[in-house]
């Protein structure tokens, strides 16, 4: 009979934790409880919050719809949240078991220890448990662990003695739970008496537990102070069980676990800025006869924006029309894309699609730095930098070099580099188109015997499929052909035969005199008396002495005698030649004219002392 009595007593104490609504005594006028368990803002502005709703007996209220709740951030209503009901078995618990070991527990401590062991056995494998006892002061018997055997050992050998510092024990439990990321729970096993020795009041306990979202589930028995434990439970989000009936242990266990696991998940898109500051989320539920709400503070976490380019890599060559279309992954919708080149803004795009088509011929070839700055609608920002090599869209090279001597029939192969394909290649001699090729490999046949000997300007112009052009310009010297010498000898003999020489001889004295004068003047000019004084350009105030028969002007330094400044100057722009009539300025590129005294010359002009010559951004005085 004694054994049966002990067996029933054991179940009675175990039942202190798992009471059914039919056998427990509750405060029937307690309102429905709503508790926010956690807020996940890691993917801000997407926010996910877990909360539970329980009835006056502390059991889950299920089947509620989104329309039943009002959601606000910093007192501003949030529209269109989604709510889903779940059984959250994956969310780990952090349970602090607070066990009364004061003198009033002498008779019931052993069975309370057994009940605590059974309760621990119902928790999941990832649930953390800490054990705190209290009498004259609280003592942490075991820190948080998932090792059930360690907890069981810690419960052995406890003794009941001393006063009851109940309030201090609960403050200690809240403190050890503060750093935990799991759902925080305090299970209090007590006869409900405070001896008046605690440093904290019951209101301070409730305030601290509510502040750290830590519900307290008191299990009271014996002469428990019902009003006190029910107040603690009601105002911290738990529920009290007073003198439970052990006959419904399995039902009580299921209800307790339901209360811990049955939750609602509320998801919404925040309207806040990702400022890294703390904000308040409030969920309110209106039910028949009243209203309940709970608040939770969370951080509006700044997020990372990633920017990538499927077709561009750092250091890549670009040319012609370039499409900048970055792949953007942002926590919130993109608000703007700013593109800078060499720290100067190219464009700012404020609407989709966030892409930009840019013509690279607008800048000088070479390495340029591009910054892509993305900002989303909650203020997150990120910058991706690419260093890109701008090259001409079309490049042309031949096997000829500047000032090369050529004669006879030539085959001139042309190499064209054009990423967008070649439409045609043209061959010009002295500005006149003489041939065109549309099929690779590109080459031209040039019979130099059909043009006059001397220097001639050649241009090879390639056009790609997007109508971009590239060219090579150079001057070559066509030598006198051997068969031409024989022709001149035959012509001279023929002229003598017809008496042409005789009239010439009659004018010999006059011609000789004029020729001598011209020769003297010509020789004087060859000695470098003519000059170009640079007024503006690469070397202002520099004096260029015109030596030899010709002086070349152009943008390419290593192939010209006088370098020119500016993109409007051609690679081979103009030449000044010494002729019997004086110094003759010849323009080589009709597309980029040379100006004499402000007037463009299309072909050539004889220079006079004091003339002002402008080519590109360079300007000179002619002295001669």
Q: Do you know the CATH architecture of the largest domain?
A: 3-Layer(aba) Sandwich
Mean pLDDT across residues: 83
Radius of gyration: 49 Å
CATH topology term of the largest domain: Rossmann fold
The helix content is 10-25%
How big a fraction of the residues is strand? 35-45%
Rough outline: rod-shaped
Number of self-contained structural domains? 4
Determine the number of helices (DSSP H or I, runs of at least 4 residues).
10
The strand line-up of the biggest sheet is 8-7-6-9-10-11
Biggest β-sheet, characterized?
Answer: 6 strands, mixed
Give me the secondary-structure category.
alpha+beta
- Uncertain segments of ≥5 residues (pLDDT<50)? 1-30, 245-253, 484-493, 495-527
Q: CATH superfamily membership of the largest domain, which one?
A: von Willebrand factor, type A domain
CATH class of the largest domain: Alpha Beta
Distance between the termini: 139 Å
Tally of DSSP β-strands: 42
Describe this structure in words.
The protein has 624 residues and is α+β, with helices and mostly antiparallel strands. The chain has four domains: 2-299, 3-Layer(aba) Sandwich (Rossmann fold); 306-390, Immunoglobulins (Immunoglobulin-like); 395-478, Immunoglobulin-like (Sandwich), CATH 2.60.40.10; 525-623, Tumour Suppressor Smad4, CATH 2.60.200.20. It is 19% helix and 40% strand. It has ten helices and 42 strands. Strands 8-7-6-9-10-11 form a six-stranded mixed β-sheet, with helices on both faces. Strand 7 (128-134) and strand 8 (138-145) form a beta hairpin. Helix 2 packs antiparallel against helix 3 (148-155), helix 4 runs parallel beside helix 5 (202-211) and helix 5 (202-211) packs parallel to helix 6. The radius of gyration is 49 Å and the shape is rod-shaped. The model is unreliable at 1-30, 245-253, 484-493 and 495-527 (pLDDT under 50).
């Amino acid at each position: 009979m004694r054994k049966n009595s002990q067996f029933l007593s054991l179940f009675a104490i175990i039942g202190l934790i798992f009471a059914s609504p039919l056998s427990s005594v509750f405060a029937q006028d307690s309102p429905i409880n709503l508790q926010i368990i956690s807020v996940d803002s890691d993917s801000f502005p997407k926010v996910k919050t877990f909360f539970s709703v329980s009835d006056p007996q502390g059991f889950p209220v299920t089947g509620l719809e989104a329309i039943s709740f009002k959601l606000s951030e910093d007192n501003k209503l949030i529209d269109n949240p989604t709510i889903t009901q779940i059984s959250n078995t994956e969310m780990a618990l952090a349970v602090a078991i607070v066990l009364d070991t004061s003198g009033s527990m002498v008779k019931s401590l052993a069975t309370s220890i057994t009940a605590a062991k059974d309760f621990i056995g119902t928790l999941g494998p990832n649930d953390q448990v800490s054990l705190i006892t209290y009498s004259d002061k609280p003592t942490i018997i075991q820190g948080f662990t998932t090792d059930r055997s360690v907890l069981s050992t810690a419960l052995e050998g406890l003794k009941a003695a001393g006063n009851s510092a109940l309030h201090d024990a609960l403050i200690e439990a809240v403190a050890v739970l503060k750093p935990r990321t799991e759902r925080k729970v305090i299970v209090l096993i007590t006869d409900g008496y405070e001896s008046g020795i605690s440093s904290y009041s019951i209101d301070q306990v409730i305030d601290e537990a509510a502040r750290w979202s830590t519900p307290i589930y008191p299990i009271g028995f014996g002469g428990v102070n019902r009003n006190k434990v029910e107040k603690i439970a009601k105002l911290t989000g738990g529920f009290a069980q007073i003198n439970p009936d052990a006959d419904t242990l399995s039902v009580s266990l299921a209800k307790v676990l339901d209360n811990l696991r049955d939750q609602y998940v509320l998801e919404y898109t925040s309207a806040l800025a990702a400022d890294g500051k703390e904000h308040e989320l409030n969920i309110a539920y209106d039910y028949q006869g009243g209203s309940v709400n709970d608040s939770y503070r969370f951080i509006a976490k700044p997020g990372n924006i990633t920017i990538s380019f499927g077709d561009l890599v750092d250091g890549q060559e670009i040319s012609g029309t370039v499409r900048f279309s970055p792949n953007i992954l942002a926590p919130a919708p993109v608000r703007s894309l700013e593109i800078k080149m060499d720290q100067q803004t190219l464009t700012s795009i404020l609407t989709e699609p966030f892409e930009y088509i840019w013509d690279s011929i607008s800048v000088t070839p070479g390495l340029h730095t591009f910054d892509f700055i993305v900002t989303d609608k909650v203020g997150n920002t990120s910058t991706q930098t690419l260093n890109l090599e701008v090259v001409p869209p079309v490049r042309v090279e031949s096997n000829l070099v500047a000032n090369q001597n050529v004669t006879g029939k030539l085959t001139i192969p042309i190499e064209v580099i054009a990423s967008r394909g070649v439409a045609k290649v043209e061959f010009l001699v002295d500005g006149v188109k003489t041939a065109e090729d549309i099929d690779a490999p590109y080459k031209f046949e040039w019979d130099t015997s059909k043009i006059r000997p001397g220097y001639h300007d050649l241009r090879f112009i390639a056009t790609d499929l997007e109508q971009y052009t590239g060219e090579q310009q150079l001057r070559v010297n066509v030598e006198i052909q051997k068969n031409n010498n024989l022709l001149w000898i035959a012509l001279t003999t023929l002229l003598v035969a017809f008496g042409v020489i005789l009239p010439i001889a009659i004018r010999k004295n006059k011609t000789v005199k004029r020729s001598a004068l011209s020769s003297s003047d010509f020789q004087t000019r060859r000695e470098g008396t003519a000059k170009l004084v640079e007024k503006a350009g690469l070397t202002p105030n520099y004096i260029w002495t015109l030596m030899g028969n010709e002086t070349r002007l152009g943008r390419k330094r290593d192939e010209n005698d006088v370098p020119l400044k500016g993109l409007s100057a051609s690679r081979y722009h103009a030449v000044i030649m010494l002729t019997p009539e004086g110094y003759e300025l010849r323009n080589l590129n009709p597309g980029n004219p040379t100006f004499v005294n402000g007037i463009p010359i299309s072909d050539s002009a004889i220079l006079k002392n004091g003339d002002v010559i402008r080519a590109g951004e360079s300007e000179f005085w002619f002295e001669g």
